[in-house]
Amino acid sequence: MAEHTKHLTFKGKILMVGFGAVGQGTLPLLRRHIDMPKERVKIITAEDWGREIAEGSLLAPATQAERLKARRFNGVPVNLGYGLGCERVNDFTGHNGAIYGFSTVVFRYPPDDLTLAVVGNESTNSTTPTSTFGYQFIRQFYPAQWT
Protein backbone atom coordinates (compact mmCIF):
# COMPACT_ATOMS: atom_id res chain seq x y z
CA MET A 1 0.00 0.00 0.00
CA ALA A 2 1.27 3.46 -0.88
CA GLU A 3 2.45 5.79 1.87
CA HIS A 4 0.62 9.09 2.04
CA THR A 5 1.82 12.40 3.40
CA LYS A 6 0.30 13.34 6.73
CA HIS A 7 -0.59 17.02 6.44
CA LEU A 8 -1.14 17.67 10.14
CA THR A 9 -1.08 16.06 13.55
CA PHE A 10 -4.40 16.14 15.37
CA LYS A 11 -4.32 15.55 19.13
CA GLY A 12 -8.08 15.86 19.67
CA LYS A 13 -10.88 13.37 19.16
CA ILE A 14 -13.28 12.91 16.27
CA LEU A 15 -16.92 11.93 16.80
CA MET A 16 -18.79 10.77 13.72
CA VAL A 17 -22.56 10.67 14.07
CA GLY A 18 -23.67 8.03 11.62
CA PHE A 19 -21.57 6.01 9.24
CA GLY A 20 -23.40 6.10 5.93
CA ALA A 21 -21.88 6.79 2.53
CA VAL A 22 -20.40 10.16 3.54
CA GLY A 23 -18.82 8.80 6.72
CA GLN A 24 -17.47 5.74 4.94
CA GLY A 25 -15.85 7.97 2.34
CA THR A 26 -14.58 10.58 4.79
CA LEU A 27 -12.99 8.43 7.48
CA PRO A 28 -10.36 6.82 5.21
CA LEU A 29 -9.38 10.28 3.91
CA LEU A 30 -9.01 11.62 7.44
CA ARG A 31 -6.92 8.64 8.48
CA ARG A 32 -4.80 8.88 5.34
CA HIS A 33 -3.93 12.57 5.62
CA ILE A 34 -4.13 13.36 9.35
CA ASP A 35 -1.71 11.93 11.88
CA MET A 36 -3.86 10.69 14.76
CA PRO A 37 -4.37 7.36 16.52
CA LYS A 38 -7.47 5.45 15.42
CA GLU A 39 -8.45 5.10 19.08
CA ARG A 40 -9.39 8.81 19.03
CA VAL A 41 -12.17 8.22 16.49
CA LYS A 42 -15.64 7.31 17.80
CA ILE A 43 -18.55 6.41 15.53
CA ILE A 44 -22.10 6.66 16.84
CA THR A 45 -24.85 5.05 14.79
CA ALA A 46 -28.48 6.13 14.84
CA GLU A 47 -29.21 3.10 17.02
CA ASP A 48 -26.53 4.17 19.51
CA TRP A 49 -27.94 7.69 19.51
CA GLY A 50 -31.49 6.51 20.18
CA ARG A 51 -30.39 4.17 22.94
CA GLU A 52 -28.37 6.92 24.62
CA ILE A 53 -31.29 9.38 24.51
CA ALA A 54 -33.68 6.85 26.04
CA GLU A 55 -31.36 5.11 28.47
CA GLY A 56 -28.75 7.79 29.19
CA SER A 57 -25.81 5.64 30.23
CA LEU A 58 -23.45 8.63 29.98
CA LEU A 59 -25.44 10.64 32.52
CA ALA A 60 -25.88 10.39 36.25
CA PRO A 61 -29.13 8.50 36.99
CA ALA A 62 -30.72 11.59 38.59
CA THR A 63 -29.93 13.69 35.50
CA GLN A 64 -31.38 11.07 33.17
CA ALA A 65 -34.53 10.79 35.31
CA GLU A 66 -34.97 14.57 35.13
CA ARG A 67 -34.48 14.54 31.34
CA LEU A 68 -37.27 12.01 30.93
CA LYS A 69 -39.85 14.06 32.86
CA ALA A 70 -41.76 15.25 29.82
CA ARG A 71 -44.07 18.23 30.07
CA ARG A 72 -47.14 17.43 28.03
CA PHE A 73 -47.94 19.91 25.24
CA ASN A 74 -51.20 21.76 25.78
CA GLY A 75 -53.99 21.01 23.34
CA VAL A 76 -52.42 17.84 21.95
CA PRO A 77 -54.80 14.84 21.97
CA VAL A 78 -52.03 12.30 22.72
CA ASN A 79 -49.50 12.02 25.54
CA LEU A 80 -46.83 13.99 23.68
CA GLY A 81 -44.41 16.18 25.58
CA TYR A 82 -40.86 17.39 25.95
CA GLY A 83 -38.34 16.96 28.74
CA LEU A 84 -34.75 18.18 28.88
CA GLY A 85 -33.76 17.44 25.28
CA CYS A 86 -36.10 14.44 25.10
CA GLU A 87 -39.37 14.19 23.26
CA ARG A 88 -41.80 11.67 24.73
CA VAL A 89 -44.77 9.88 23.19
CA ASN A 90 -45.78 7.60 26.07
CA ASP A 91 -43.00 4.96 26.16
CA PHE A 92 -41.24 6.26 23.03
CA THR A 93 -38.34 8.61 23.80
CA GLY A 94 -36.59 10.65 21.15
CA HIS A 95 -35.17 13.88 19.89
CA ASN A 96 -35.76 15.89 16.74
CA GLY A 97 -34.23 18.86 15.04
CA ALA A 98 -34.46 20.95 11.90
CA ILE A 99 -32.78 23.69 9.94
CA TYR A 100 -33.74 24.96 6.51
CA GLY A 101 -33.69 22.00 4.15
CA PHE A 102 -32.89 19.29 6.71
CA SER A 103 -34.70 17.52 9.54
CA THR A 104 -34.07 14.47 11.70
CA VAL A 105 -35.78 12.50 14.41
CA VAL A 106 -34.83 9.44 16.40
CA PHE A 107 -37.21 7.54 18.66
CA ARG A 108 -36.36 4.66 20.97
CA TYR A 109 -38.87 2.09 22.25
CA PRO A 110 -36.97 -0.06 24.79
CA PRO A 111 -39.66 -2.75 25.30
CA ASP A 112 -39.07 -3.96 21.71
CA ASP A 113 -35.41 -2.86 21.48
CA LEU A 114 -36.56 -0.62 18.60
CA THR A 115 -34.79 2.48 17.32
CA LEU A 116 -36.45 4.54 14.59
CA ALA A 117 -34.21 7.13 12.93
CA VAL A 118 -35.49 9.32 10.11
CA VAL A 119 -33.47 11.85 8.11
CA GLY A 120 -35.07 14.16 5.57
CA ASN A 121 -33.95 16.88 3.22
CA GLU A 122 -37.08 18.98 3.62
CA SER A 123 -37.73 21.41 6.45
CA THR A 124 -37.83 24.97 7.67
CA ASN A 125 -36.62 26.14 11.04
CA SER A 126 -40.12 25.56 12.42
CA THR A 127 -41.17 22.31 10.73
CA THR A 128 -39.89 18.77 11.17
CA PRO A 129 -41.38 16.50 8.50
CA THR A 130 -39.37 13.62 9.92
CA SER A 131 -41.25 13.99 13.22
CA THR A 132 -44.52 13.75 11.32
CA PHE A 133 -43.25 10.49 9.79
CA GLY A 134 -42.17 9.23 13.23
CA TYR A 135 -45.57 10.06 14.74
CA GLN A 136 -47.34 8.22 11.91
CA PHE A 137 -45.07 5.22 12.44
CA ILE A 138 -45.99 5.12 16.14
CA ARG A 139 -49.67 5.59 15.34
CA GLN A 140 -49.72 2.79 12.75
CA PHE A 141 -47.47 0.18 14.37
CA TYR A 142 -47.91 0.98 18.07
CA PRO A 143 -51.48 2.34 18.34
CA ALA A 144 -51.59 1.78 22.12
CA GLN A 145 -48.71 4.28 22.41
CA TRP A 146 -50.64 6.90 20.45
CA THR A 147 -53.09 7.82 23.20
Q: Could you list the spans in which at least 5 consecutive residues all have pLDDT below 50?
A: none
Strand order of the largest sheet: 5-6-7-8-9-10
Number of separate strands: 10
| Cα radius of gyration in angstroms | 19 Å
Kindly name the structural category: alpha+beta
Rough outline:
elongated
User: Portion of residues in helices?
Assistant: 25-40%
The first-to-last residue Cα distance is 58 Å
Tell me the fraction of residues in β-strands, as a range.
25-35%
Structure, explained:
This protein is α+β, with helices and mostly antiparallel strands and 147 residues long. It has two domains: 8-44, no CATH class; 60-145, no CATH class. 29% of the residues lie in helices and 29% in strands. The strands form three sheets. It has a six-stranded antiparallel sheet, sandwiched between helices. Strands 1-3 form a two-stranded parallel ribbon. The termini are far apart.
Walk me through the topology.
Blueprint: E1 8-9, E2 14-17, H1 21-33, E3 34-35, E4 41-44, H2 46-55, H3 61-67, E5 71-72, E6 80-82, E7 87-89, E8 92-99, E9 102-109, E10 114-120, H4 129-141
Parallel strand pairs: 1-3, 2-4
Antiparallel strand pairs: 5-6, 6-7, 7-8, 8-9, 9-10
What are its keywords?
4 helices, 2 domains, two-stranded parallel ribbon, alpha+beta, 10 strands, 29% strand, 6-stranded antiparallel β-sheet, 147 residues
